[in-house]
Design a protein that fits this description.
Elements: E1 2-4, E2 11-20, H1 31-42, H2 48-62, E3 69-77, H3 78-82, E4 90-96, H4 99-102, H5 104-114
């Protein structure tokens, strides 16, 4: 994903990880919809924290009856890389709900998938 920092007017580029757990009778959405949701919100200049929250809220609404939604964004911020300290800057933001907050096993499984284990 790529977006523009509304604070510095320079890009941040990275990866959005999205997971949700549907209930037995809950609604699911296709993979392309998840990509479209990320692209829709990333087109707007904003800060990464808000982008994470917006994506989470949208997925939560679309997947009616879900029992957990997780969004993690890992992005490199050009505002740090090309100005100021001029270092690489990978920032991670996460928004979790329901089972991702209450069950350690579910959260650990999410992080194992993200880390490729």
């Amino acid at each position: 994903m790529q977006s523009t920092c509304s604070h510095h007017a320079v890009p941040f580029v990275g990866v959005a990880h999205i997971a949700y757990i549907p209930s037995a009778d809950g609604k699911i959405i296709g993979l392309s919809k998840l990509n479209r949701i990320v692209e829709y919100y990333a087109r707007r200049p904003q800060v990464q924290e808000n982008l994470t929250m917006q994506i989470h809220s949208h997925v939560d609404q679309m997947c009616e009856g879900n029992i957990g939604v997780a969004v993690m964004i890992e992005a490199n911020h050009m505002c740090v890389q090309v100005r100021g300290v001029e270092h690489d800057s990978i920032m991670k933001t996460t928004k979790l709900s329901k089972r991702f907050l209450t069950e350690d096993k579910v959260l650990n499984e999410l992080y194992q998938f993200i880390n490729g284990q």
